Amino acid sequence: MRTYAFKLYRSKRNKRLKQKISLAGVIYNHLIALHRRYYRLFGHSLGAYRLKNHITKLKKTKRFLFWNNLGSQAIQDIAERIDRAYKLFFRNLTHRIRAAPPGFRKVRRYRSFTLKQAGYKLLSGNRVVIMGHEYKYFKSREIGGKIKTLTVKRDALGDFWLYFVTDEDIEPIETRSGKSVGLDFGLKTFLTTSDGEKIESPFFMRRAAGRIKELSRKLSTKKRGSRNRTKAMFNLARAHRRVANQRKDFHFKLARALALQYAYIFVEDLNMKAMQRMWGRKISDLGHAKFLNILAWEMHKNGSQGAKIDRFYPSSKTCSSCSYVLPELSLSMREWKCPKCSAEHDRDVNAAINIERVGSSTL
Question: Are 107 and 29 a contacting pair, CB within 8 Å?
Fold first, then answer.
């Protein structure tokens, strides 16, 4: 499976898509109400198959006749989304994880709808017909493979995006031989390699915090429902999108450089949830989890291999010279001396060397 994302041209026609997404939000809330009523009566969720049959009957009634303006496949996808959410909710209950059932959403915050086999048609050039209306989009590349789904999504700035999911067969890339490296992730340093190179953390959100704080303060002073409040909301969303784009650009450039330089890359299996609870916004600002996904993709494209080592392996406390394991090592100690072989270690470089060593033996 592969996803292609294209941005729509800004046009007055896009108001139709906005109305469709708002209608999808209305239908979503109605189906959530049905689920909650069923769960309250019977103690388990309403299956997607039964819900779809019920939707077919509802659309024939006068009260719900307006649902036909959205399209049957989009409504079926909403039912499937809710079904997946309820399955996740019940799975969390069986594992004794505190969770709440899927809830209602504000219609203006509902963002997308999905079409599968029908409801859209690609035309020559950069044009697409969605539910009988033609739209133009910025076509940056050709779409390969057979299209499985088309998702129309509206972002916080009011721009519309098309997401095509295809079953394109990606040709396997032969793995290559070369240097191996271990990567140790941190806070002040984004990552440290086993070669001793340190990549400093950019902290894009921290840099833009003053500007975002100012825009948030301006937004809070605007009257609800006014045109000025809408402008202030767009300015704030634009600042957040700039930060996200900067972070994404940094991740892709660094991941590509690593994938081209090394044939074997080893990292720790990080517990992101625990790290986020401990350090909060810093971890979200760095985006280690997203970087690992991008790194995996770049490694696949360039024929590199990799592996994750156990998160409980004491990479920082293990001496890379004699394998002695320190009983205690606080986070404030950035350098330490091995009591057995007297080797002096930089904490992060030592951890990266151990990660590379264990990863090589695992692979």
Answer: yes
Which helix (H) or strand (E) covers residue 115, if one does? Answer: strand 112-115
Give alpha helix (H) positions in 12-124.
14-42, 48-58, 72-94
- Burial readout 101-123 (b: 16 or more C-beta within 10 A, e: otherwise): bbeeeeeeebbbbbbeeebbeee
Q: What is the predicted pLDDT for the residue at 254?
A: 94
Place of tokens 């309403």: 46
Whole-angstrom distance, CA of residue 265 vs CA of residue 355: 10
Delimit the domains of the chain by residue range: 2-166, 199-306
**Cα–Cα distance between 339 and 344 in angstroms, integer?**
10
Contact (CB, 8 A) for 250 and 207: no
Cβ neighbours of 349 (radius 10 Å): 20
Token duo for residue 20: 């469709």
List, for residues 21-35, the tens digit of each pLDDT value.
Answer: 999 999 999 999 998
227 exposure class (CB count in 10 Å sphere: 0-12, 13-18, 19+) = exposed
Q: For 71-115, write each residue's pLDDT tens digit.
A: 889 999 999 999 998 888 888 888 888 888 888 999 988 999 999
Instruction: Give pTM, 2 decimals.
Output: 0.81
153-172 tens-digit pLDDT: 999 888 999 999 998 776 76
Spatial separation of the C-alpha atoms in residues 129 and 309, rounded to whole Å: 48
Amino acid identity of 360? Answer: S
What is the Cα–Cα distance from 77 to 20, expressed in whole angstroms? 14
